[in-house]
UniProtKB/TrEMBL annotation:
One of its GO terms (molecular function) is metalloendopeptidase activity. PANTHER family: MEMBRANE METALLOPROTEASE ARASP2, CHLOROPLASTIC-RELATED, REGULATOR OF SIGMA-E PROTEASE RSEP. It is an enzyme of class 3 (hydrolase). Residues 130-184 form the PDZ domain. The keyword Membrane applies. This is Putative zinc metalloprotease. Keywords: Hydrolase, Membrane, Metalloprotease, Protease, Transmembrane, Transmembrane helix, Zinc. Its EC number is 3.4.24.-. InterPro entries: PDZ, PDZ_6, PDZ_sf, Pept_M50_Zn, Peptidase_M50. Pfam families: PDZ_6 (PF17820), Peptidase_M50 (PF02163).
Amino acid sequence: MLTTIIAVVVVLGGLIFFHELGHFAVARGLGMGVSTFSLGFGPKILKYRKGKTEYALSLVPLGGYVALVGESDPKDIPEGFTEKESFALRPAWQRLLVVAAGPAANILLAWLLCWTLALGWGTPVLLPQVGGVVQNGPADKAGIQPGDTIVSINGAAVANWQAMADAITQSNGKTLAVTLSRPDMAPQADDQTRADEAAQPEQGMIISVELTPERSIRKTIFGEEESAWLIGIRNSGAVRLVQHGFADAAIAGAGQTADMVSLTWQSFVKLAERVVPLDQVGGPIMIMQMVGKQAHEGLAGLLALAALISINLGILNLLPIPVLDGGQIVFCLWEIIFRRPLNARLQDYAMRAGIALLVALMLLATYNDLWRILKNTGWFGSGS
């Protein structure tokens, strides 16, 4: 329990704090005044002043905040600061940079975490090993069996599952010459033995077969049905960790970060399109459960989850909802394009609508979290 609490505080608090640090760094870099930069919320436990800024450690350690001079009222200039340091009186492009720096900091943090993972643990690559075969499908008819590893297709080496899948889907239904390796394995070998041998592959019996992909329906990660050329196999889940040097790890981390950003953005789009049902929306309770679980399973999984949550936090804040950074970015862009700020009354109405929308989303997420907990406890039937 204590491990879970510490992990939740460090991960969630750290991600929100890093977000605010982005705002702080760019604001100070542009010469804007910051009256307070706090780690945590609520009553201040410790505080000290450096220059004009008060740095504080507050009671509730989840996140932090930055108090920019003139952010809420251009005329509210604390003692010691000048109007030149007021956030609200700065050009729109400068305010846009400050606002956008928070989400950008979350993406940067995710990259640093992925870089650390690639350097310390390596990047996982899903091997082209067959875990299951669809009955009467092309692979089954060609004699492919669970445990086989696809070595090449039409003479081109296959390094991972994605490369193999791409070669099959891009075949346009043409016959493929497939070379596979079949390990010399006792019939009673269990799944763990297969996974271990996949991670440390040995050259088994080399078999060459020909098969013709069939046009079939499959489901995407979001549950949508799509038509594709398939041969009727499932992966075994076996992976290999690819080790990297310092610079290569940075590049690999950037690639993983880009993939997570793309997937997260698609998730928001699919949610808006109702492809992903609303009951899949999770909130703080689900996040805490996930963090607690990963904290007990190992540091690598916890860092990977922290990177994913950081990206979600960054992209969520970029949504064009007025109370979020994305909404403020829209206001700044309006001012830059039309050379005047949006009408104050319209901004006020938009802010109220944004607050109402966020409250509704939080209530939905919390309801979903509680409903999942109740289902899993068996109060309302099986959770399976």
